[in-house]
Specification:
The chain is α+β, with helices and mostly antiparallel strands. It has 19 helices and 13 strands. The strands form 3 sheets. It has a 6-stranded mixed beta sheet with strand order 8-13-9-10-11-12. A 5-stranded mixed beta sheet has the order 3-2-1-4-5. It starts with a strand and ends with a helix.
């Protein structure tokens, strides 16, 4: 059975939260059988981004009145999934551009409240965007391409709105209502399957030429983003050296990146370990897709000089012998909500669930519960558990400890230390400035209403920041 889904969120960052969700269960012919939809009020630790609200068109003041608490939504979603899996044994989640976005938000909301998001491997996932791009690359004359331009750069768009408009499935702007987007996505899958005679469920996210082995060069069709503003190709080729090949994952060296590095650095010895690691691409079938093709001899000639250097390199050799070393080398000290799997799912998730129930029964017992956790911690997973427990307390407590609230708000909204890519995020003050500037130039009446509601919410949030930080 298929479970199509879509979320509207408060942020592009995984530290944000889902504020609107829709799940539609269908049979294998995409006929709807069941659904779950809802809106989630913002936690006290959440301050929506201006661009997010302008995209999802949600009035945050109305949301605070009509939405349910996040912990209730997490319980509803978990129960919905559990019942479906009990009924059908296995469910396949299907979303548009979901593997690198919606799926992480789904796992985060479940783990925050002590629910294991993996359902013993019975919850599969497919990203429609990968399937659509693959169809486009191999049917370049018949696909409904949409040429677009942004910041003087032209490229072919794979946005849901653009593809459905080009296909005649959408005659106006995309609503960005989660349920309507799910229905639109189902229509698009049905349309493309019929047009190109390719079933979504038969798509293999990782597909290599026969007899592919390590230490060879293969190519992949990929989107073209010309830097000079010229018209893009329908696709270009990227070339890779196969480092590690496993049934559901790959480690490959991007030969263009490595060649350009060598050209800049002049000597192999001057290329740093970090730079070499940046040239390795990890492909996981649950997150990415890679359809490889064999190369002809003339395509690989420009890389022949660098191949012996790769084969003699001690770093690449050690990774080839044990892929675990690669993951150890790239491991980052990111916030737990960027890497929710790091909490471990042996007993920590069950412990968090029990703590949640204990806290609901007696909120005043938080200091004792925390102290017990602190006295028993022996690992990084224990630290993550404590971190998630503290955030759970902030989200469900009527009057949380201001000191603890400050310890969360300051690194997120003032110093930005909590973010994975600080240069790509904004402080609360910067968001306020963006809101004021947007209001000055906005002419859409509905957007002005949304922005004024957000402004009122920002004022309330600013008072919270002022009193706690």
């Amino acid at each position: 059975m298929f479970l199509f889904y879509d979320f509207e969120t408060s942020s592009r960052e995984f530290l944000g939260q889902i504020i609107s969700y829709a799940f539609v269960l269908t049979d294998t012919n995409y006929e709807p059988l069941d659904s779950l939809t809802g809106k989630i009020k913002l936690n006290r630790t959440q301050c929506p981004e201006v661009k997010a609200i302008l995209t999802n068109k949600i009035n945050v003041l109305d949301l605070q009145k009509t939405g349910i608490p996040e912990y209730e939504a997490a319980q509803n979603i978990f129960n919905f999934f559990s019942n479906l899996i009990q009924t059908y044994n296995q469910i396949t989640l299907i979303g548009f551009n979901s593997n690198n976005f919606d799926l992480s938000f789904l796992r985060n909301i479940l783990v925050r409240y002590g629910f294991n998001p993996y359902f013993n491997g019975k919850l599969k996932n497919i990203d429609i965007l990968h399937w659509i791009q693959n169809i486009a690359f191999y049917n370049k004359d018949n696909f409904p391409w949409v040429l677009t331009e942004n910041n003087n750069k032209k490229y072919y768009s794979f946005r849901l709105e653009d593809i459905t408009q080009a296909s005649g499935l959408l005659t106006n702007e995309q609503s960005h209502d989660a349920f309507e987007d799910v229905i639109l996505t189902i229509k698009l899958v049905t349309y493309l399957e019929q047009k190109f005679n390719q079933r979504l469920v038969e798509f293999k996210p990782i597909l290599l030429p026969e007899n592919t082995h390590s230490n060879t060069i293969i190519k992949q069709r990929y989107r073209d983003f010309p830097e000079d503003g010229s018209n893009p190709e329908k696709y270009i080729y990227r070339y890779f050296y196969t480092l590690v090949l496993q049934p559901k994952s790959l480690l490959m060296i991007n030969l263009k990146y490595l060649t350009e590095l060598l050209s800049t650095k002049k000597t192999w010895e001057s290329i740093t370990k970090e730079e070499k690691l940046s040239c390795i691409q990890y492909i996981n079938s649950n997150k990415h897709f890679f359809v490889g093709e064999s190369c002809i001899e003339t395509e690989t000639e420009s890389f022949q000089a660098i191949i012996p250097l790769i084969e003699k390199d001690s770093l690449f050799q050690s990774i080839q012998q044990s892929s675990k070393e690669y993951f150890q080398l790239i491991k980052k000290e990111w916030d737990i909500e960027y890497q929710i799997h790091e909490i471990g799912f042996d007993h920590h998730i069950d412990t968090l669930n029990k703590l949640k129930h204990d806290l609901f029964k007696n909120p005043e017992n938080y200091p004792n519960l925390l102290q017990e956790l602190l006295s028993k911690r022996t690992s990084k997973q224990d630290n993550y558990l404590i971190q998630l427990f503290n955030r759970l307390y902030l989200n469900i407590s009527a009057n949380p400890d201001p000191t603890l609230l400050s310890r969360y708000l300051k690194p997120r909204y003032i110093t930005k230390e909590m973010y994975r890519n600080q240069e790509e995020t904004t402080t609360f003050d910067e968001q306020q400035h963006e809101l004021e500037e947007t209001l000055k130039t906005c002419t859409n009446k509905n957007d002005i209403i949304l922005l004024n509601a957000l402004k009122e919410y920002y004022n309330l949030f600013s008072n919270q920041l002022t009193t706690t930080v």
